[in-house]
Amino acid sequence: MRRLDLDSIVPDFAAGLKAADALRPQAISQRSGKAHQPGIGPHAENSVVRLTLAEMRRLRPSYYDEAGPAQYPGSRLQCDLGIGHPLEWAIEVKMARAFGDNGRLDDTYVTDVLSPYESDHSALGDVAKLRKSGFTCAKGILVYGFAYTSRELEPILHALEVLARDSGPLGGRTVTEFDGLVHPVHAKGLVAAWEVL
After folding, report:
1. Is the pLDDT of residue 2 over 70?
2. Residue 39 carries which DSSP code?
3. Tens digits of per-residue pLDDT, 4-63?
4. Contact 29, 36 (CB under 8 A)
5. Left (φ > 0), alpha (ψ -120 to 50) or beta: where does 118 sit?
6. Dihedral of alpha carbons 73, 76, 82, 86, sign
7. Is residue 11 one of the residues assigned to a domain?
8. Secondary structure letter of residue 133 according to DSSP
9. Is residue 170 included in any domain, yes or no?
10. Whole-prediction pTM value?
11. pLDDT tens for residues 78-98?
12. Which helix (H) or strand (E) holds 127?
């Protein structure tokens, strides 16, 4: 089987996310214990990766049957998404979601993508972690985000590129958009990924 590239993985992730959303999953609020409105949008990042990967396996089993978290060499830490056997890709996944289930602004979402501090576990921090990782396979950072009229994704993605390239080379951006999701706040967005060089 041929090696997958980001031109395949990104649209497959978007298709898996949309298929998972169509199942109308309901996340439970950690604060109140109540169910959020149906849809993939309110789910935590690790839940989205798990639900999306299940659908990627269903849609393209020969490519993703063995995909799942990958252990960092010489560490107990796990990378969000390892693809291939032997490992072809180690991909860290981050969410860019500006609003909560109720439509209120989450003022911490920029930190999740752009924080330079390791303890914040941001996309930018993951780029640095992948560069130091010891993985011998291809490495990537994938951001899935939801688009809103008042909070477009492009500025945050551009900022991530600029900051990541400030400390080393980064491949070009691969993007797939999605729409028609069931949640009234998180109805459309995109998946973007870069190879970390």
Report:
1. no
2. S
3. 899 999 999 999 999 999 999 988 887 788 888 899 999 999 999 999 999 999 999 989
4. yes
5. alpha
6. positive
7. yes
8. S
9. yes
10. 0.95
11. 999 999 989 999 999 999 999
12. helix 123-131
Question: What pLDDT is stored for residue 57 in this prediction?
Answer: 96
Q: Which two tokens stand for residue 148?
A: 């809103």
The one-letter amino acid at 149: T
CA distance 103 to 36: 12
Q: CA–CA separation, 24 vs 36, rounded Å?
A: 11
3-state SS, 70-123, equals EECCCCCCEEEEEECCCCCEEEEEEEECCECCCCCECCCHHHHHHCCCHHHCCH
CA distances (Å), origin 98, targets 30, 138, 142, 150: 18, 30, 17, 10
Query: What is the Cα–Cα distance from 139 to 164, expressed in whole angstroms?
Result: 14
The domain tally of the chain equals 1
- Domain with 178, as residue range(s), is 6-195
CA–CA separation, 194 vs 172, rounded Å? Answer: 6
Any domain includes 1: no
- Residue 16, domain member (yes or no): yes
As a whole number of angstroms, the distance between CA 163 and CA 183 comes to: 32
DSSP 22-83: HT----B-TTT-PBPPSSSTTS-HHHHHHHHHHHHHHHSHHHHTT-EEEEPTTSS-EEEEEE
pLDDT at 1: 46
Per-residue pLDDT tens for 157-176?
999 999 999 999 999 999 99
